[in-house]
Design goal:
binds glutathione, about 230 residues, about 5% strand, Glutathione S-transferase Yfyf (Class Pi), Chain A, domain 2, 2 domains, Glutaredoxin
């Protein structure tokens, strides 16, 4: 297949690209690449040493593209059918902004703040750092408030169809879910509904099924929502 997505399935950014490709019906391969174990040659391909990385054999055997946003918009240009970006200029801009917000703010506060202390030690055979994760989770209320304000009264974050903005936001909630944390539905009902709609899609169901067994074996954060966000 022409396109190959390199990375690991627990990465929210790798998931973002895989969900996009599944939604668009674009055939692709997935190749394991762990950025923490990659050799020195990885630095020449991506000086930031991060995943995902896209290979496109149509361009040439050495063609690689790093960064989920660069990759996502490259894919939109290369495969314009089943567009994952809204048509109207205003919604297009809004989708770009929400993608950026998710890639930076959500990624930092969810990924570094909660997912890493909970899941990384367990993957290495140790115990989760519940105290750090709880401290990280407390900081999420402000982000959930913002997302609630942006999704209230609508089905999708940008325009009236499922888009890259929705994928970019929802993918971080998959990682959050693996820690046992989810936005409380009584306080953030529109966000909770949005996540149910997004995760019911075949694309998310397909990629999430890959780590369902691992999810069941992971210890979850043992602090109730009322205490986290009182
Ligand atoms: N802005 C980048 C972020 C990618 C990123 O941070 N990926 C993580 C995995 S989820 C990574 O490769 N981390 C390796 C590291 O921090 O050394 C993108 O959108 O692709």
């Amino acid at each position: 297949m022409a396109l190959t997505v390199c990375g690991v399935n627990l990465s929210p950014f790798v998931r973002k690209i895989r969900v996009q490709l599944i939604e668009k019906g674009v055939p692709h391969d997935v190749e394991p690449l762990n950025p923490f174990q990659a050799g020195d040659d990885f630095t020449a391909i991506n000086p930031l040493r991060r995943i995902p990385l896209l290979k496109d054999a149509d361009v040439g055997p050495d063609f690689t593209l790093p960064d989920s946003s660069a990759i996502a918009h490259y894919i939109e240009r290369k495969h314009p059918d089943s567009p994952m970006m809204p048509e109207s200029v205003a919604d297009y801009g809004r989708a770009l902004w929400l993608e950026e917000y998710a890639d930076t703010e959500l990624a930092g506060k969810v990924g570094i703040g909660v997912f890493r202390p909970m899941v990384f030690p367990q993957l290495a055979g140790g115990a989760p750092d519940m105290a750090s994760a709880a401290e990280g989770a407390r900081k999420l209320a402000r982000l959930f408030d913002y997302l609630e304000s942006q999704i209230e009264g609508r089905d999708w974050f940008a325009g009236d169809r499922f888009s890259l903005a929705d994928i970019s936001v929802a993918t971080h909630f998959v990682n959050l879910g693996l820690t046992g944390v989810a936005p409380a539905s009584d306080r953030w009902p529109a966000l909770d509904d949005f996540l149910s709609r997004a995760f019911a899609r075949e694309s998310f169901r397909t990629v999430n099924a890959e780590h369902a067994e691992m999810d069941a074996g992971l210890a979850k954060l043992n602090v109730p929502a009322e205490e986290l966000w009182s």
